[in-house]
Amino acid sequence: MEIALKIAGGQFNPIELNFIRFLIGGLALLPFTILYLKKNNVRINRSGWGKIALTGFVIVVLSMTLYQLSIGMTKASVIAIMLSANPIFGLIIGFVFLKEKLSRTNVLALILTLVGLLIIINPFHLSGAMGIVLGLLSSIIFGIYGVMSRVYGGKLGLNGLSMTCLAFLFGATELGILMGITHIPAVANAIPSGFSEFARIPYFQGISLQTLPLILYISVLVTGVAFGLYFVSMEKVGILQASLIFLVKPALAPVLALFVLGESMNANTIFGIVVILLGSLITLMGEKIAYGVMAIFRRNNPEAHPQVDELEVVKDKIENSELAKRRKATEEAVRNSLEEKRESRELPSED
Prior knowledge:
cell membrane, mainly alpha, transmembrane, single chain
């Protein structure tokens, strides 16, 4: 995604490109959203539309605008790595505002991810500082959007795809209104010359037969389909497992940027990628790894952790008792059914 946006960024105003991709991406998902709303008889009140509009403002106007600007200021591969850290920020936001539990493995993953970002940013030899700061802000706000989409969508009865579609369309509309304000002469003249891209922002300038395939790829596939599938997968397998998609970005983006854009990878970037991947892997597999290590250690040192064995005994008792309860309930249901059939045959008929 970052590579395609980097290429398109040289032909379009960055704000304009952000507006186009989310407008077309939202429209591409609209038929599926309408079908879902009708099939499930979903009714959204005024408060619900306000929540959707706020979610759209966060993702389109704030997060992705900063994201698009950051790509134009620094390497696409670095920004891709920044965005891949958003599930970790989502965990922090969920812990602070939703009181969701944060395990020790998640804390370790958070620390490793932040260390990896510092290694990549390399604050002692900082280059493209503004682009990195904007990319980091974009990733944090994206994490906020992920939590908002999940919470508001659940309250409104919307699935991940329909919530994504409506947020995109509202966000594109809000961004379009702000773009219109920049055409007011008083506003346009007040913008400093060094920020000319924020004055009289065009809407569809630069679209031609040559650029149309790139625009459709960015808008429909990268924006509409990719975002929609991400939130659908989050519903099916959970937020941590769905975040597997972001494991691919830090490893793949720098390689593609090297071959397509000619962006070099230094030792700091490679080492930082490895640390972030390790942090993400711990987030997804940490509990399984922890219990595996605990089991191995317990087998080798049974006397060192008797409390673990006691926990296993209690766990077995609970599982066995639950199994016994289910078996007893099944037997009673079958017995009652047989009794009812037997009694119905013994009763005289109306004839």
